Amino acid sequence: MKIIILGAGRVGLSTAEILSREDNDVTLVDSDEEKLQGLQDRLDIRTIVGAAAHPGVLEQAGGPDADLVLAVTNHDEVNMAACQVAYSLFRTPKKIARIRSAEYLRHPEIFCDESIPIDVIISPEQVITQRILHLIKYPGALQVVDFAGGKIQLVALKAYYGGPLVGRQLRSIREDLPNVKSRVAAIYRQNQPIIPKGDTVIEPDDEVFFVAGAPDIPIVMGELRSVEKPGRRIMLAGAGNIGGQLARRLEQDHYHVKLIEHGSIRARQAAEQLENTVVLHGDAADEELMLQENIDSMDVFCALTNDDEANILSAMLAKRLGAHRTMALINRSAYVELIESLLDIAISPSQETVGSLLTHVRRGDMVAVHSLRRGAAEAIETIAHGDAASSRVVGRRIDEISLPSGTTFGALMRKDEVIIPHHDTVIEPEDHVILFVIDKRHIHDVERLFQVKVTFV
Amino acid sequence: MPSKRKNSSSSTGALNGFLSADRILFNVAASSKKRMLEELSALLSRHQAPLNRHTVFQVLNERERLGSTGIGNGIALPHGRLNGISEPLAAVLRLRQGLDFDAVDDQPVTFVIGLVVPADATEQHLKILASLAQIFSEAGHRSRILKARDVDSLLNLLA
Description:
Chain A has three domains: 2-122, NAD(P)-binding Rossmann-like Domain (Rossmann fold), CATH 3.40.50; 233-347, Rossmann fold (3-Layer(aba) Sandwich); 353-449, Alpha-Beta Plaits (2-Layer Sandwich), CATH 3.30.70.1450. Chain A is built from 16 helices and 22 strands. Chain A has helices at residues 10-20, 33-36, 39-43, 55-60, 76-90, 102-105, 124-137, 173-176, 217-224, 241-252, 264-273, 287-292, 308-320, 333-339, 349-361, 443-450; strands at 2-6, 25-30, 46-49, 68-71, 94-98, 120-122, 141-147, 152-158, 182-189, 192-194, 207-213, 233-237, 256-261, 278-281, 300-303, 325-329, 345-347, 366-372, 377-383, 407-414, 417-419, 432-437. The two termini of chain A are 23 Å apart. By secondary structure, chain B is α/β, with parallel strands linked by helices. Chain B has one domain: 3-Layer(aba) Sandwich (Mannitol-specific EII, Chain A), CATH 3.40.930.10. Helix content of chain B is 38%, strand content 22%. In chain B, strands 1, 2, 3, 4, 5 and 6 form a six-stranded mixed β-sheet that branches. Chains A and B meet through loops of A and α1, α2 and α3 of B.
């Protein structure tokens, strides 16, 4: 695919990096020459210095040939104008823009071909807020992602002694939970992937990825570790976009939230906007303040500022002072690897965002793509189109479909029904198929498998 | 039903009645799949008042997204269904340079037949595609078509 990325900020850069590794022609545009320096050689992309929305710049960036424009500069208005120009001059088929301001987001009707032609709006802050909410709701989960509009979820967690299934074969889950639809899609044992089979025995410390209907998630988690009740006491550090949104969502769900913000203006604004959240003006790395605010009785502490180092430090401090679970936003992937053992969960904003972008880059009819295990693995939801003649999957039993190596079936969504496929399940047209791809290098084969043949009309 | 102009040994007539000389272009410079589909859409909608080239492009592009119509040996058959036409329409582009098309054999595409059919003509749509696939699966026909360098010989071979 020919892709133009506008804006070499965090999202723009990490997206350029991932997409350029996957056989795409990527051109990255930014008005700041310094930001682009050296990238051309390091990433195998083209870079253009210039104003993102200027027709001449877009032309130079390959506008007439581009299949996709991704506008992720820091300004909503520039992103909108760039999509408008790309549409008017080049009829670019897919235009994706980051829009942050709630003022615009409140009026989705302005984003159409007749007014502001943007096909997909992404809001990284919303995506990340949603992820953290899931993690707070399911204590013990390392990652929770949505499929089928949230009806099916994929959960990663660590298996512990005390979980009834631990030490037993996977197939016993059906005896334990005869009425629950779930399937283990992948297991990582000491970081090595294992393709789960019926007789695979779960060991303590295995990282298990399973899919299930959303209401059944806690039950399945209870098979793999002792059940924890979701805690109600939450402390957040940083009242930026994510901290503010998260606090609002949590107070709606009746959590007890404390929000620490070191900027006095921002703290005052947050206090005015939030109703039941206790907003504190101070430093989350201040031991005295943390003790005073009973950090030791907190069920979850989340460090959500823009500063990686500050987030790591405050989360480590919170952990040492007795917070039950700690999470931190960490942008630099090198840090994530370093400190993983010191925190409970490191959330990478760029990785969370890239997944939602990959949905539109992947070939075939993708509904959702989630990037997992720092980009090494992927879970996808794709629609099976066609019939036995024009498709390689429709009309075939699961055991007749040869999935690329390291790829497993998760679940199917057929109209409104969640189906856990067995060897004799037949794929029907328009089924939503959820797959786990352990090794992302095989993603192209997966795309191929689900693409219709020339005779599909 | 249009009748075949020639017997099947010299011609195949898959596009008989749907392809005309003014919808065949040689030596087309297209720098990308998108530009090629735009060129094809313009050609298909030329002199077809109800057709808008942007709509044709959208339909062809959307169909490509679900699966490439590159059938191998440098041949692609982009196609789609459209409201507002009463008969199928075909167009041919011979490209100056091979184009990355994500084809089944990963070979660049140089020969493109575009096809749009009325929205309700599913049967006919399938039939035309099947006969095109048939023609191109036969090495002799295929090589004659790929080697044709003028409008008349292509019309002879396809229409």
